[in-house]
Design brief:
GNAT family N-acetyltransferase, 5-stranded mixed β-sheet, globular, single chain, alpha+beta, acyltransferase activity, transferring groups other than amino-acyl groups, about 25% strand, transferase, acyltransferase, 4 helices, Acyl_CoA_acyltransferase, about 140 residues, Aminopeptidase, about 30% helix
């Protein structure tokens, strides 16, 4: 991967035709087969899931998956499902730029918050962006 730092970073929504290109980046976080990734992304897109790409020149170096959610408890908010920056591009500000895109998108939709689940090793990144740990525990039952 050539991460030419002199090229401007461009953040934009990906068309479904570009999703296969996003797989190489997403697969650094999600251990899925490409066909499974594409099926899941398509299924989630019916509920508003979108993939956003960060490009340096023609090279896709970061991917953000997000979806609008409306609940009684939280109202309208944007949920970030996936934030992945290619290993070679980490530390370049790409993750910050993708999160800025998500926050601006949530504000444009008049949503009250951006919510996400963070891996323990990513908590500091989000805290630097003024995210706080939510006090309500997440519960799950495997069926």
């Amino acid at each position: 991967m050539n991460t030419n730092s002199s090229a401007a970073l461009v953040i934009r929504r990906l068309s479904s035709a570009e999703w296969p290109q996003a797989f190489s980046v997403i697969s650094e976080l999600r251990k899925l087969e490409e066909a499974d990734f594409l099926r899941r992304a398509l299924r989630q897109s019916h509920s508003g899931y979108e993939l956003v790409g960060a490009f340096r020149g023609s090279e896709l170096i970061g991917v953000l998956g997000m979806r609008p959610v409306h609940t009684l408890a939280r109202g309208a908010y944007l949920h970030v499902d996936d934030l992945v920056v290619a290993a070679e591009a980490r530390g370049s500000g790409t993750g910050d730029a993708l999160m800025e895109f998500a926050e601006a998108d949530a504000r444009a939709r008049e949503m009250s918050a951006v919510v996400l689940d963070a891996r323990p090793e990513s908590v500091a990144f989000y805290e630097r962006r003024d995210f706080v740990l939510h006090p309500a525990p997440t519960m799950k039952k495997i069926l």
